[in-house]
Design brief:
α2 (about 30-40) runs antiparallel to α3 (about 50-65). The protein has three domains: about 5-185, no CATH class; about 185-370, Rossmann fold; about 375-434. It has 18 helices and seven strands. A hairpin with a 2-residue loop joins β1 and β2. The chain has helices at about 5-15, 30-40, 50-65, 70-80, 85, 100-115, 120-130, 150-160, 165-175, 180-185, 215-225, 245-255, 275-280, 300-310, 350-360, 375-390, 395-410, 415-434, and strands at about 185-190, 195-200, 235-240, 260-265, 285-290, 320-330, 370. It starts with a helix and ends with a helix. It is of the alpha/beta class.
Length: about 425
């Protein structure tokens, strides 16, 4: 290999190794394959087959992600969760420690050189090392790479001679869109003690939900309070199965994700971790709905105690960017048996009635309770007509309603869920069989 190529490769290796804040850019498969490729090219011996293999591994990693090298680099920069990207979301650039800003500027200069390392340049170096022809990997830029504001940030960076000058623009981006998991995912779930992103959250929209307008209005208003930075109320959505309680909560994400709303799904079995989850979200600029579906408790349930701490508060101040929205099919969330009711027997708890009332009043600890009554026939048919229109089903209204009522009788009764199942079935039936 010629000396100039070896010097260029060595410089890139040093820049990748010298990063102070954005080190995780090269901890993902594509970044690791890139670093390995540089190392292999530089130290390639004899026939250079190891160099070709390293080039193939890097190409395969890019192909698997369907990204160009430049798009990969920029996505990682925008997602990166490091001390600079976290702190700049909470305060202005001027209020950050100068050393932290200087470290970010240093890293951006190094990342600019690595970003500008083209596929054509890499394939040329591989050819020199292996003495074999190598096809360059030419990838097209994606318009947005799945990120809001991606194209405009890329355009600004590519216009700059020195990426250190981009630190202010990136600070604005981080404050607006967040970093890490909360930039990458709109919906997450708590799994095995950590937050895990949901790549394909339910895409249902508020305008698809009909029949419970007052409940929807109240929940939307409370969510607006949360987004505006006011103390929003914890909400219990209580009512019959299939009435759209869960769908209503999930539909909020489609409406407000671009304003910084995130949805975190927590299973009942993980409610004991609720105080830990809330503390992780406290100093994050996004707003969070912790979503607990089908909530109920058994006697002496540890989850009940953890939930109570979060709802009622403790010595620790409640963060204003987190609320709990829970759904349940029963008004009293703790199961009560007739045997639980205190009778005047010896050795019974003196204030047993007080204990029972505490259990029964647990749902009152939610600031807002929205009740979803079973759908009557008129409401059910209204939902059917609305969903059928959205699905583009063109049947006479009398025929549509007759079929819908037959479906409800034969299946799960009148509810929003039944209406959705009927319309999905009918749409497929008309498309396949006419």
């Amino acid at each position: 290999m010629v000396d100039s190529a070896a010097a260029s490769i060595q410089l890139l290796q040093r820049q990748a190794a010298s990063l102070l804040l954005y080190q995780s850019v090269f901890c993902k498969p594509i970044g690791l394959a890139f670093v390995k490729l540089l190392q292999t090219i530089r130290h390639s011996q004899h026939d250079g087959l190891d160099c070709l293999q390293a080039y193939g591994n890097w190409f395969q990693a890019l192909a698997a992600s369907n990204q160009s090298w430049q798009d990969y680099m920029l996505v990682q920069i925008l997602y990166d969760d490091n001390p600079f990207t976290r702190q700049v979301q909470l305060t202005s650039l001027e209020n950050l420690p100068p050393a932290l800003v200087a470290a970010a500027q240093y890293d951006l200069q190094a990342l600019q050189s690595l970003y500008n390392c083209s596929s054509e340049q890499l394939s040329h170096w591989v050819k020199l090392a292996s003495k074999l022809p190598v096809a360059p990997t030419t990838w097209h830029h994606h318009q947005d790479a799945g990120l809001p504001g991606f194209a405009s940030v890329r355009e600004k960076l590519e216009q700059l001679d020195d990426w250190a000058d981009a630190v202010s623009d990136l600070a604005i981006y981080y404050r607006q869109y967040g970093t890490g998991l909360f930039a990458q995912y709109q919906a997450l779930r708590w799994l095995s003690g950590q937050l895990v992103g949901i790549s394909h959250p339910d895409s249902i929209k508020l305008n698809e939900l009909i029949g419970y307008q007052s409940q929807q209005d109240a929940l939307v208003k409370n969510t607006e309070f949360l987004l505006a930075g006011y103390q929003a109320l914890h909400v219990l959505l209580y009512g019959s199965r299939g009435s759209g309680k869960s769908s209503l909560v999930k539909a909020l994400l489609q409406k407000y994700a671009q304003r910084g709303l995130r949805l975190i799904e927590v299973a009942k079995s993980d409610l004991k971790d609720l105080p830990t989850i809330v503390e992780q979200l406290r100093d994050v600029p996004q707003k969070f709905i912790i979503f607990v579906d089908d909530l109920s408790f058994e006697e002496d349930d540890d989850a009940f105690k953890a939930m109570k701490v979060v709802l009622e508060g403790s010595v620790t101040q409640r963060p204003q960017n987190v609320v709990i929205y829970a759904t349940s099919n029963r008004r009293h969330l703790i199961r009560e048996f007739f045997g639980d009711r205190p009778l005047p027997r010896d050795n019974d708890e003196v204030h047993a009635w007080d204990t029972m009332q505490e259990k029964l009043s647990f749902s009152d600890r939610f600031g807002l309770t929205l009740t979803f009554e079973p759908a009557n026939q008129d409401t059910y048919l209204e939902i059917i007509r609305h969903l059928a229109a959205q699905a583009g089903i063109n049947l006479p209204q009398s025929d549509l309603e007759f079929r819908a009522l037959q479906w409800a009788t034969r299946h799960n009764g009148r509810s929003g869920r039944t209406a959705r199942q009927f319309v999905d079935f009918l749409k497929a039936e008309l498309a396949v069989f006419g």
